[in-house]
Amino acid sequence: MIGRAFTLPSMSEQHLLPIYDRYPLEVECGRGCNLFDTAGRRYLDMASGIGVNAFGYAHPRITAALREQAGLCVHTSNLVGHRYQGELAEKLCRISGLDRAFFSNSGTEAMEAALKAARARGLALEPQKTRLVALRGSFHGRTHGSLAVTGQPELRRLFEPLGAAVTFIDPNDGEGLAAAVSAETAAVVVEPVLGEGGIYPLAEGFLRQAREVTGRCGALLVADETQCGLGRTGRYFAYQWAGIQPDIAVTAKPLAAGLPLGATLFTEEASRHLPAHSHGTTFGGGPLACRVALEFLSLLEEVLPRIEETGARFRACLEQLRHHPAVGEIRSKGLMFGIQLARPGLPVVLAAMERGLVVNCTQGNVIRLLPPYIVTEEEIEEAVGILDEALSAALSDRPLPCPVLRSPL
Ligand SMILES: Cc1ncc(COP(=O)(O)O)c(C=O)c1O
User: In terms of residue numbers, what domain contains 255?
Assistant: First the structure.
C-alpha cells in the first residue's frame, strides 16, 4: 500500500531528551529502497538514513555477514585484536591512497581524531602552529572539536567559546583561502561536497589550491568525507575528482551499512603525531562493524562504476521539477542532490512523506536526496513523480493536512 494518513509516532515524549523534531513516521522495517511503517505503509526512502543505507535495507549480503558475525563475536575492545580491523584498514588505505586507519564510531569522532592529530603535529612543529581554517556552511559533527570547525554559527552559538582558533572562509573563495593560511595554520578542513550545508560541491580548482597552499605552509589538508565519501559521488572519495591526496580523510556514514563505524585515514607523516596511548576508543573498530564494513566495500566495488551514471539519470529526471516556480538551483554530485527552493522546504518534505517518499530538508529550504546506490530507474521515476506532486500540493496555498515540524538535523 502506498498512500498515507499520518499519526504521530508513539515514542515517549516524557523520557526522551527533546533534541529531535522527528518527521511523523514510525519505522517497522525496510527492504531495498523501501521503508515500511508500523501500519504497513510503504515509503520510498531517498534519504537513506542521511546517507547511511547505501545498499538500502536488509541487503542479503549485509544481513548474512551481520548474522554470521553476531553469532561469533560482536565486541572485543582494543585491548586485543581481531582479523577484520586490519583487513578493513588495508582496504580503506588502498582505495583512499592513504597509509593508516583509526576506527571510531561516528563521523564526529573520526573528525576528532583528525583534529587531534593536526593539533599535536602543529604543536610539535612550533608552539603557534595550532590555527585551523574551515568553510562557512560546512558541517563536521556535534562534539566540541568538530563543532568548532563547523561553519554554521547557529549550531555553535550555545557552546561558544569552543577553544580552537578557527578562521572561516567562503567555499570556493581562493583569495580568502590564500589570505587565511599562514605558518600558524595546523590544518585546512574541507568538506569536498557540503552536505548538511545544502549540497554544494567544491570546485576542483579550489580543492587543488587547498592542497597546494597547505603543502607550502606545512599545514595538513583534512577532507571530511563523512557524507560525500565511499562512493556517494561516483568515486571512492570525492577529493579524487580533483586528483588530490589529502593528508587525512574522514569517513563514516555508510561504512558499516548502518552499524556505527567511523574511520580516520592518515598519511604516514600525519599519523606519526598520534603515538601510542594518545587517543583511543572502547567500541571503535569492533569485529561486527568491521566484518560488515568489509562486505559493504565488496558490494561498493561492484556498483561503483555505475554510480555516476545512475546519478546523471536521477539528475536528468529532477530537471522535470523546474516547472515549479519555487524550484531554484538544483545542485548535485553523483548521488547527492540539493533542490533549492524559494520557499520553506519542510511542507514539501511532509507532503512527500504523506505520498510515500522520504526526503529531508536542510538549511530550511533545500530538499536533500541521498538515495541508495542501488536505486533503480523505476524508483527514480517514482520518487521524482511523488516529489512533483508534493511540490504542487505544498507550494499551493491550501493548508497541509499534517503538523509542521522543524528539520531533525
Ligand atoms: C560531513 C559530515 N561530517 C561529520 C558528520 C557527523 O557525523 P556523525 O553524525 O556520524 O557524528 C556529518 C553528519 O552528518 C557530516 O555530514
Answer: 76-285
What is the model's pTM?
Answer: 0.95
Residue 400 is assigned to a structural domain of this protein:
no
Closest atom, ligand 1, to C-alpha of 225: 1
Query: Does residue 205 sit in the same domain as residue 332?
Result: no
- Asked if residue 13 is part of any domain, the answer here is no
Ligand 1 neighbourhood includes 37 CB (under 6 angstroms): no
Q: Is the CB of 258 under 6 A from ligand 1?
A: no
Tell me which H or E stretch contains 134: strand 131-135
Q: What is the pLDDT of residues 292-337, one digit of tens each?
A: 999 999 999 999 999 999 999 999 999 999 999 999 999 999 999 9
- What does the block give as the cell for 40? 504497513
In the chain, the number of structural domains is: 2
Of 253, 285, 317, which one is at a domain's C-terminal end? Answer: 285
Within a domain: 299 = no
pLDDT at 8 over 70: no
CB-ligand 1 contact for 285 (6 Å cutoff): no
Upper half-sphere CA count for residue 266 (Cβ side, 13 Å): 23
Burial string for 321-330 (b: 16+ CB within 10 Å, else e) reads beebebbeeb
320 burial level (CB within 10 Å; 0-12, 13-18, 19+): middle
